[in-house]
Write a structure and sequence with these properties.
Arc Repressor Mutant, subunit A; 2 domains; 3-stranded antiparallel sheet; elongated
Length: 182
């Protein structure tokens, strides 16, 4: 969903070819996860079917013809509506890590070892992101690193909180799977 709106926003800036859109997307938003060309073209086709973008020209080249896309007035309205809607917080009630901890406790494996390994992985990621933030060429790059760092910090707080309550959680997990329960 966000890729669609990112492409609409880039097209609002100026009409572009799919290749140009991918390059612009990766420069502005793809530091953590660039998109594939196929995703760009599938998204553009979908946006065209929905009437949010239109092909305003086709240029012959050495390879396939290059379509130039522009945002439609309906696309501008849709983008404006999306930009004006606040995002709902997305609590990860059943995160993979939580699931691993519960399954480790159910099976008698050392859940604290999993938490320690996850903590080490998070700390390594923080170190890398801190370096990236410190050497960022643009404010945009620095803010993206900050965003990722803040999320990792929250995960680390959860890991520490869970480690402190692991004995209680283990007891609850054992009680929940007692007689008469799967």
């Amino acid at each position: 969903m966000t890729v669609s709106y990112a492409l609409l926003g880039l097209l609002e800036e100026s009409a572009r070819h799919g290749y140009d859109l991918k390059q612009s997307y990766d420069r502005r938003f793809g530091a953590a996860k660039p998109i594939r060309f196929g995703q760009v073209y599938r998204t553009l086709a979908q946006l065209e079917r929905e009437g949010l973008v239109e092909v305003i020209g086709v240029e012959a080249g050495a390879g396939p013809d290059r379509k130039r896309y522009a945002i439609t007035p309906e696309g501008v309205i849709d983008l404006d509506t999306w930009l004006g809607e606040p995002e709902q917080p997305q609590p990860q009630l059943q995160s993979v890590l939580f699931t691993k901890i519960v399954l480790a406790l159910l099976s008698g494996r050392p859940a604290d070892d999993f938490l320690d390994a996850q903590r080490a992985t998070h700390l390594a990621a923080m170190k890398s992101l801190t370096t990236a933030r410190r050497t960022a060429a643009t404010t945009q790059d620095a803010l993206l690193a900050d965003y990722q760092l803040f999320h990792i910090e929250a995960d680390l707080r959860w890991i520490d909180h869970t480690a402190a309550r692991l004995a209680t959680l283990a007891e609850e997990v054992r009680d929940a799977s007692g007689p008469g329960r799967p």
